[in-house]
Amino acid sequence: MSEKKFEIETIRHSLSHVMAAAVMEIFPDTKLGIGPAIDNGFYYDFDTSADKCGNDAEKCRISEDDFQKIEKKMRELINSDLKLERSEISADEAKKMFADQPYKLELVSDFGDEKISTYKLGEFEDLCRGPHVDSTADLKSAGWKLDKIAGAYWKGSEKNPMLTRIYALAFENPEELKKYEVIIQEAEKRDHRKIGQDIDLFSFHPEGPGFVFWHDRGWFIFQKLIEYWREIHRREKYQEVNTPVLLSAELWKTSKHWDNYRDKMFVAKTASDDDFTLGVKPMNCMGGILIYKNKIHSYRELPIKMGEIGLVHRNEGSGELHGLMRLRQFTQDDAHIFCRENQIKEEILKVLQLCFEVYKKFDLEIDHIELSTRPEKSTGSDEAWETAEKTMKEILAENKIEHKINEGDGAFYGPKFDFHLRDAIGRTWQCGTIQLDFAQPENFDLSYIDEKGEKVRPVMIHRVIYGAIERFLGIYLENTAGILPVWLVPTQAIILPISNKHFDYSGEIMAKLETAGIRAEIDDRNESIGKKIREAEMQKIPYMLIIGDKEIIANKVALRKLGAGDKGQVKISEIINEILK
Questions:
Q1: Do the beta carbons of residue 468 and residue 331 sit within 8 Å?
Q2: How far is it, in rounded angstroms, from Cα 16 to Cα 19?
Q3: Cα angle at 149 between 327 and 197, to 5 degrees?
Q4: pLDDT score at 331
Q5: What CATH code is assigned to 8-182?
Q6: For the chain, give me the number of helices (H) and strands (E)?
Q7: What is the side-by-side order of every strand in the sheet holding 493-497?
Q8: Cα distance between residue 165 and residue 149, in whole Å
């Protein structure tokens, strides 16, 4: 065992080789895919299908029932102090070495004539660039365990075979692994898909893969988020527009989405005209551009701020879909600001301040802000990109905003700021984004008339604050464990009469709540009061007003608050004032 201190990614990558070696000892006919390190662990892909493993697929079929023996074999390899030995070989040598491994042969072909590196671990040898630990003994102090099995298409394409992916967790020591497992257990309790089902907000159906079906209560919350958005955007002098979901392919070619984003777009054709192609919009900016182009603008009008609650579609792979977090159809709280160059800093700063305000409203902590720079695939001149990136950096410096740089991850038309929010159990999520765009005004020949009566090119600022409203709500549900603030919940108070002789007084209380504008219900079912309380708490209703003989005599209600328990008898006027406040 060496005295070196290894990076966690190196430890995880080395463990993936150990796992592959263990699987090959137990299931020698298995065909190997790839095995990278990932956040919190690693995975390896295996082909266990009959056509790859011979007629008897059981010889290499792996299930979670096999985890115990795979882990046992991995520990044996780790304790054997096996060296991880690097070699460089030619493509021809690699083809001979991996003659019975079709996926490795495909990778070798992808490398062309370049030298290929392999790592040997005992009798097991694999294609790999490294790095790795020196010996399996260097992995003895790591905390790791096999986690789950999932299906994964080879190279991520649905056109390729489905492989068996074994995921594993791995950390520097067992204590870190234990901490992570506690976080995961808490995350499972907070899973927005479970919360959404428990409190009847939404559902998902195989007839609409990647689409959410909103129920009454969930749609109410969704609309309240939009109401709040509209309130603050009216205050900030945004117009609100609405643009079509389908726009011509020619438009998307002009915008360069056809070249840079085509694989994520849905395309529609009419039954009567095969030559007429429409793109289903993956983002809202093109509609705003067409509205801007509809008339001539003076410099006095700028900045023009166009907000749009816009429905967009993106062709996400089936393996990428995840509840509200990753959908094929979602709603962006979009806005596009058309401004002069000397207005860029002021307008972006206003958007930054609006983001800070919204996240504070929802008690969401900003983990970090990221500046993402020019990607490999992009549109626009070098000069425009240099100006845009320089401006974004100056905004951060002049306002002393802490940030990280994410090289090469900007939008294809401009650099961007991304807001990464931290939730209640320490996970981070990217929500808001602000993108500075010199390219699309050029692509669409946008202009305004300046003080001298000459045409000048405006600049576009693209921005969202929620991001996708669906995703924001999913994050917020998990952050709050479904316990939403009173202003946002569909039912703010529920009246729970103990028996039918308490219905009349319950009706009087209901009338007072409704008059005050409070969203209330009466649970007048013939059920025990205990069951009514349990179900109201499962529905995450903040105020439960229990009514029995004593409450009628006292002209009060027995108040129970979600998360705070019984509060004794309280006047209804006090409850109304508290809810309204």
A1: yes
A2: 5
A3: 40
A4: 96
A5: 3.30.980.10
A6: 19, 28
A7: 520-522, 493-497, 543-547, 557-561, 565-570
A8: 6
Q: Mean pLDDT of residues grouped by 10 in the chain (581 residues)?
A: 79 95 92 92 88 59 91 95 92 91 91 86 90 93 94 86 94 94 87 92 93 96 97 96 91 85 83 78 90 95 96 86 91 95 94 95 92 85 87 91 87 87 82 90 93 94 94 92 93 94 93 95 92 93 95 93 90 94 86
Topology adopted by domain 193-247+281-480 = BirA Bifunctional Protein; domain 2 (3.30.930)
38-325-187 Cα angle (round to 5): 65
For helices 572-580 and 503-515, give the axis angle rounded to 10 degrees: 30
Q: Domain 493-580 is of which CATH architecture?
A: 3-Layer(aba) Sandwich (3.40)
Query: What are the residues whose beta carbons fall under 8 Å from the beta carbon of 119, sequence distance 6 or more?
Result: 17, 84, 85, 86, 87, 125, 126, 128, 130, 132
Q: Which amino acid is it at 316?
A: E
Closest CA to 360 of 434, 419, 305: 419
Instruction: Copy the structure tokens of residue 28.
Output: 């020698």
Name the maximum alpha-carbon separation found in the chain. 93
Q: What is the pLDDT of residue 159?
A: 85
Residue type, 308: E
From CA 104, how far away is CA 443, in angstroms rounded?
Answer: 43
- Please tell me the pTM assigned to this model: 0.77
Which letter does DSSP use for residue 411 in this model?
B
Backbone angles phi, psi at 365, to 5 degrees: -85, 130
pLDDT at 528: 93
The domain ranges of the chain are 8-182, 193-247+281-480, 493-580
Q: Do residues 545 and 509 touch, judged by C-beta distance below 8 A?
A: yes
Report the pLDDT value the prediction gives residue 318, as an integer from 0 to 100. 76
pLDDT at 1: 54
Enzyme catalytic residues: 285, 314, 332, 334, 336, 416, 462
Tell whether the torsion through CA atoms of 252, 254, 255 and 256 is positive or negative. positive
The span from the CA of 460 to the CA of 179, in Å, is 45
How high is the pLDDT of residue 576? 95
Place of tokens 């056109």: 159
pLDDT at 476: 93
Angstrom CA distances, 343 to 295, 337, 391, 399, 400, stand at 21, 10, 11, 16, 19
Question: What one-character DSSP code corresponds to residue 80?
Answer: T
* Burial class of 501 by CB neighbour count within 10 A (0 to 12, 13 to 18, 19+): exposed
Residues 134-150, buried b or exposed e (16+ Cβ, 10 A)? bbbbbbeebbbebbebe
- b/e string for 208-218 if b means 16 or more Cβ within 10 A? eebebebeebb
What is the distance between the alpha carbons of residues 261 and 280, in angstroms, rounded to a whole number? 12
